């Protein structure tokens, strides 16, 4: 050190202060690692957040980021299966012919049955182990904001979206203007049956 320090701008006291600080941190991390291993031995599926809460309940003041770093460095992180809750996406699947956007975000109208919109919505019910899904396909009139027809099904098939369309055609009065039905570009709406 006597030979190296004169060639640097670092003071001797600063070097030794930093060296001791690093050693103190390593010692503290080793103590915390022992406590984390004790918690993990009893609860192997605990992640860093739960381990932090457990340590705090034992009266140990510790930051969750520090616990996360130590667990990651020592391969103590929780390796549990993460069941991702996939949302329904009607654009997945075989692609057909996509219709042109005729509304171009002009949703206002004063004429009934002129501008209609539809989409498929997914709803989940039941507990997490036995979760069920149900799908809703409403057709809404943008003039009155009224749901003119709808269908509910356990499967989002093409027939499922065509039923409210058939009901709309029967309900529609004779008009002297064109009715536009706007939907997203999901698989059901690209099908030949829908078009």
Whole-angstrom Rg: 32 Å
* DSSP strand tally: 5
Broad shape: elongated
Q: How would you state the average pLDDT, rounded?
A: 83
What is the N-to-C succession of helices and strands?
A: HHHEEEEHEH
Q: How would you sum up the major sheet? A: 5 strands, mixed
Set out the fold topology.
Layout: H1 12-42, H2 48-57, H3 64-73, E1 115-118, E2 121-125, E3 132-141, E4 146-153, H4 158-171, E5 180-182, H5 187-190
Parallel strand pairs: 1-5
Antiparallel strand pairs: 1-3, 2-3, 3-4
Helix pairs in contact: 2-3
Report on this model:
By secondary structure, this protein is α+β, with helices and mostly antiparallel strands. It has two domains: 5-73, no CATH class; 115-190. The protein has five helices and five strands. It has helices at residues 12-42, 48-57, 64-73, 158-171, 187-190, and strands at residues 115-118, 121-125, 132-141, 146-153, 180-182. The termini are far apart. 15% of the residues are buried.
């Amino acid at each position: 050190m006597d030979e190296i320090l004169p060639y640097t701008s670092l003071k001797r006291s600063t070097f030794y202060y930093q060296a001791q600080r690093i050693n103190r941190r390593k010692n503290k991390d080793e103590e915390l690692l022992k406590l984390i291993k004790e918690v993990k031995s009893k609860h192997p599926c605990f992640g860093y957040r739960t381990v932090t809460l457990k340590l705090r309940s034992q009266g140990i003041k510790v930051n969750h980021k520090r616990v996360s770093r130590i667990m990651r460095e020592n391969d103590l992180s929780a390796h549990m299966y993460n069941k991702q809750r996939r949302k329904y996406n009607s654009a997945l699947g075989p692609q057909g012919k996509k219709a042109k956007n005729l509304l171009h975000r002009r949703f206002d109208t004063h004429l009934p049955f002129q501008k209609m919109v539809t989409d498929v919505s997914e709803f989940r019910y039941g507990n997490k182990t036995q979760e069920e899904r149900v799908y809703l396909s409403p057709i809404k009139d943008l003039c009155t904001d009224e749901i003119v027809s709808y269908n509910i099904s356990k499967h989002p098939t093409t027939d499922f979206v065509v039923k409210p369309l058939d009901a709309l055609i029967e309900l529609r009065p004779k008009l002297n203007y064109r009715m536009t039905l706007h939907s997203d570009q999901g698989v059901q709406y690209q099908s030949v049956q829908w078009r």
